[in-house]
Amino acid sequence: MEVDPFEVQRLCQANAVKWTSHVAQRLILRNISPDEVIDVLMHGEIIEQYPTDYPYPSCLVFSVVHHQRPLHVVCSIGEEQVFIITAYEPDPNRWDDSFKYRKQEADE
In CA terms, which of 16, 31, 59, 78 is 20 to 30 Å from 9? Predict the structure, then answer.
């Protein structure tokens, strides 16, 4: 089952977002605010789906925040909550110029 972007937005609006201590530490290290993560989830585009992830299907969401900073957020939906898995600035060496498509590895 794929993650529905409208369900992600609905749960964010309902403040049904689950933050783990692990993701909180990662956000601090990466200088990403929780507001930026929510902004990505509310206005971003799902660019990859991971329907077989356990315990819940997850997805990768992309958006540009503050009109300049590209961000990726991985989240899943379960138990009427959005679980934030991680957030990061995509590496331009691994993503195309749009940050929506992975570049092919040299040995592929």
Answer: 31
The top-level CATH class assigned to 5-88 is alpha beta
pLDDT surpasses 60 at 107: no
List of residues 6+ apart from 17 with CB closer than 8 A: 11, 38, 81, 82, 84
Domain ranges of the chain: 5-88
Would you tell me how many other CB atoms lie within 10 Å of the CB of residue 19?
Answer: 13
Band of the pLDDT at 108, cuts 50, 70, 90?
very low
CA distance 19 to 66: 22
For the record, the structure tokens of 74 come out as 């991985």
Structure tokens at 13: 């609006």
Altogether, the residues listed in the chain come to a count of 108
> pLDDT-based confidence at 60, cuts 50/70/90?
very high
Cα separation, 12 vs 30, whole angstroms: 22
DSSP 64: E
Q: What is the pLDDT of residues 39-48, one digit of tens each?
A: 999 999 999 9
